[in-house]
Write the structure tokens for this entry.
Amino acid sequence: MSHEGIRFASKDEQARDNQASRPLLRIVITPEKVRVLMTEGKGLEIDWADGHKSAWGFAWLRDACPCATCADERAQEGRKAGQPKPRPAALLPMYAPPPKPASAHAVGRYAIQFNWLDGHSGGIYSWEYLRRVCQCQECTFTDAETTGTPN
Ligand SMILES: [Zn+2]
Ligand SMILES: [Zn+2]
């Protein structure tokens, strides 16, 4: 009397099949072109690798500074990125020159940093952050759609 042994696929064989390349979950956000329109005093323009185009004015960028101090201040005052500080209505408006950077430089391959004329320079504007706060019609429209409360 002889029994044929039942043969299971070995554990090693199964493991090998499951190790097929995993999909990358990280979305790589890369700018194709970054233009700082310094002499024009206009702002920052980015053409993204996926064909999207973004532009921000310097004043907006200054009020969207992503450093911890500015982000805390905005959170406390309930301001969104790029929203200017409320000015006291009772006082005569003092002339303040519009925010402009004295210089701008790349931080590694992932961000840009501005040295503002008011002396502030702590904010590192990562590509990821900038793409998230894109002000183009398409992006701001979807924003208003999802929150349902455009202002
Ligand atoms: Zn800041
Ligand atoms: Zn956009």
